[in-house]
């Protein structure tokens, strides 16, 4: 069975699969309410919030679109620096919202001062930011960008932490983030199908006055049900069993230790790349700690490398995403990986490189 080192979905442990295969329970009852409540402290810790954390049976895009639908009244500013952040602009347009963007080259980070200048033009009430742009391996300066956005009155900040949550601290309350969202198939190491998100009081107030929020992704429905430790519709209960097991793991490891482990594992890949002359696609100071995106050197048989790594050693890495497919390759260090498992991958890659 090949093991995934792609930046999502990632390898899922046998313990997680075992937790997910617990017998089904009904979702309107005390057993489910206890399950729901048990997830809150762990989710609140990794997001860095005292707000309730909502559970959406959807991939991350469900909540990315929902955040726009619940919050945008006037005009949204999307901060675009790669495949996922660029697409958020398109999604805002598809939803019929007024939207403008700051676009930087793929491989660059968003400049907080450019955000300040753009917001100063006026007319915006919402900003979208991808903390960790998984397509390019860029980690944006979330604290600095949040500080700029917060300096504008009545502008809400929606932050996608899909590939950083649980691998890097987010500190949502301290930074004043209005929506903090993530899917679980990235650093949380679960199978896909569930997204988690926290919403600030200011964002809840905005949503309340928003017409046509629909039902499935209505923030008010989530909030009302959360009070009773429940979800608006039948959730992916098996994934919640899995999430319970992952959060128990995080608790026993310690969140700070988990973050340090991700950082150390990420450094191993950076050093491995350095040894082989692979250049990082992301600029120094803005590099993801949960995955690495390398330039494909000229003349390097990247697809052969990836193919042989899989066929010879059973490890899967990714050959680039979107318009930089082939020009880059990406290696994930998210989730349950240890120094030992990263070393196995490195030894295998060295073997294939010869
Ligand atoms: C994977 C990813 C998404 C998309 O998640 P889906 O689960 O496919 O909806 C969005 N944003 C980032 C940063 C991602 O890495």
Automatic annotation (TrEMBL):
Cofactor(s) needed for function: pyridoxal 5'-phosphate
Binding-site residues, substrate: 330
Domain (Aminotransferase class V): residue spans on this chain: 24-269
Molecular function per GO: alanine-glyoxylate transaminase activity; L-serine-pyruvate transaminase activity
One GO process term, biological-process aspect: glycine biosynthetic process, by transamination of glyoxylate
InterPro entries the record matches: Aminotrans_V_dom (IPR000192), PyrdxlP-dep_Trfase (IPR015424), PyrdxlP-dep_Trfase_major (IPR015421), PyrdxlP-dep_Trfase_small (IPR015422), SP_NH2Trfase/AEP_transaminase (IPR024169)
Keyword Transferase carried by entry: yes
Keyword line: Aminotransferase, Pyridoxal phosphate, Transferase
N6-(pyridoxal phosphate)lysine sites (modified residues): 186
Recorded superkingdom: Bacteria
Family: Belongs to the class-V pyridoxal-phosphate-dependent aminotransferase family.
UniProt-recorded name of the protein: Alanine--glyoxylate aminotransferase family protein
Organism whose genome encodes this protein: Luteolibacter ambystomatis
